[in-house]
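User
Take a look at the entry that follows and flag anything odd:
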Amino acid sequence: MATTRIMPLHVGKGRTESRAISDIIDYVANPKKTDNGRLITGYACDSRTADAEFLLAKRQYIAATGRVRGTDDVIAYHVRQSFRPGEITPEEANRLGVEFAKRFTKGNHAFVVCTHIGKSHIHNHIIWSSVSLEYDRKFRNFWGSTKAVRRLSDTICIENGLSIVENPKPHGKSYNKWLGDQAKPSHRELLRVAIDNALSQSPADFEELLKLLQEYGCEVSKRGKSYRLKLPVGRKQPVWTAWAGYGLEDLQAVLSGKKTHTPQKKTVTQAEPPKINLLVDIQAKLQAGKGAGYARWAKVFNLKQMAQTMNYLS
């Protein structure tokens, strides 16, 4: 039985292209989860430097086509493919992951397949570059791509005598929700926090509430009978009734004492600043029993950390 999910990887705000792709590559290529790198396969790229090669491909695409996108640009696509426990070996799962990626991208995109064995069920992380090998076009996510991914994965499983999910439940989750607490808070969530803080000061009326919001750095504008709020980063957001508990009528009821304001129970986490990790002592790790696969990963990891240090110092 194989279950699948496709997730576009965006640059996002507050991250560089390099960090966005290296974060996910470093996670899926973790030697502890891939048998010291033995269960990692690259196609049209070196799996140890796939993040750098994906970035180079994007720059060559821009040079060839002149097309440039902003922070919403998709730099790669990520598919997770899980198998029923005890039904498949790690090596076979990796082989099927490679076959899936080649067939789905028609062999026109570089990719890496990392098979994780850390959990009770074996699963693949498949990441392919959004830029084609000819640097003249990009892979575009399409309507129904989730079904297409599942259909191809099911076909490969049936061809290899594996079970499939007969009636899969529809599901969808954004990349930020998939990240969970590590995801950056949205502009609307930050506005709600600003309103919560302003209401905690017990303003006498709506005008005083707006003044407190302005002191917090919130831009307030009025159009007709509606108000719009905007933080330094983000776009103007209307205060309307669709905000449960934060609509114009709700706020006026709270200020008049007719209603008690209850802040939403959602923790807002700030994005962590870029970290420069310590270098891995390769010799010490080898003496502790680590294998050649771990040594290869550690060498690439140390090179990345040294480059990051030089960028920080320069």
Remarks:
- Residues 275-314 form one domain.
